[in-house]
């Protein structure tokens, strides 16, 4: 669909904080976190030792938002026509990994945690094994629910 | 608190897709989206014309997740002791803008939209005027609610 001529990305550089360890590759990766969950495959966030201290205070059972960098997705697609949608739609109106900044995010639950080694197990994740991780945030109803909806 | 010696950020470079237009500066910026909402000040997402086509398909009333780059926050703080929290806590256990990648996000509601000019008005935003925007995503209960909670 419509690809923009956007030039090189010239904004701030990210730090990769670790890698996702999942069962998935290009041939079998679930299309979204719901499908990943249905397939019952937990995933591990392998946080680089340099960043492991930043995990302090997280706990098992807690819902967190994981941000990951979809490094094989396209950054120049502004309008797309995915099969499940009726007609073309802008990338900011879709959760497609193809977008100007190929950040995907899911809200998942921590099932095990070792802050010394930097290993965080979560109930599911919908990305390829080895996908770069860029952030973990506690999910908070006051910030993450739409205004007017209560948690 | 504990600042890490993390070296330069050497991951993928972001594209800045636009700027937040808010009433806030360093002296009066609300600490979080709840406070921003209480103060009743809508905000505008000024999307760069090059990226405006990616807004197609969004609609007034829709909840969206806005990702913004907190360009004055610290990237080397791994453990912090904010006043509202009991003792030091890792940056991944907090919503502080100080984190390895200074991405903040809030779920807000679109109150007006012009996809031609790239102006998206939202009910509130808790960042300084001029803050770089990096993504807009439709909020979807199947991805953004914790597992086991229904929308």
TrEMBL record, chains A, B:
Domain of life: Bacteria
Domain TsaA-like: 14-148
A UniProt-annotated Pfam family: TrmO_N
Molecular function terms, GO-annotated: methyltransferase activity
UniProt keyword terms in alphabetical order: Methyltransferase, S-adenosyl-L-methionine, Transferase
Key word DNA-binding present: no
Keyword Methyltransferase part of the UniProt annotation: yes
InterPro entries: TrmO-like_N, YaeB-like, YaeB-like_sf, YaeB_N_sf
GO process terms (BP): methylation
Family designation: Belongs to the tRNA methyltransferase O family.
Protein name: SAM-dependent methyltransferase
Origin species: Rhodovulum sulfidophilum (Rhodobacter sulfidophilus)
């Amino acid at each position: 669909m419509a690809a923009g001529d956007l030039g090189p990305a010239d904004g701030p550089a990210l730090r990769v904080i670790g890698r996702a360890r999942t069962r998935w590759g290009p041939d079998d990766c679930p299309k979204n976190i719901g499908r990943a969950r249905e397939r019952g495959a937990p995933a591990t966030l392998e946080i680089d030792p340099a960043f492991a201290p930043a995990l302090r205070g997280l706990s098992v059972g807690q819902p967190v938002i994981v941000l990951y960098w979809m490094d094989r997705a396209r950054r120049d697609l502004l309008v797309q026509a995915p099969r499940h949608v009726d007609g073309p739609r802008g990338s900011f109106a879709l959760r497609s990994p193809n977008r100007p900044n190929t950040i995907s995010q899911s809200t998942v639950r921590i099932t095990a945690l070792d802050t010394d080694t930097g290993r965080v197990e979560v109930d599911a994740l919908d990305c390829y094994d080895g996908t770069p991780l860029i952030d973990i945030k506690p999910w908070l109803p006051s910030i993450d629910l739409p205004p007017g909806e209560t948690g």
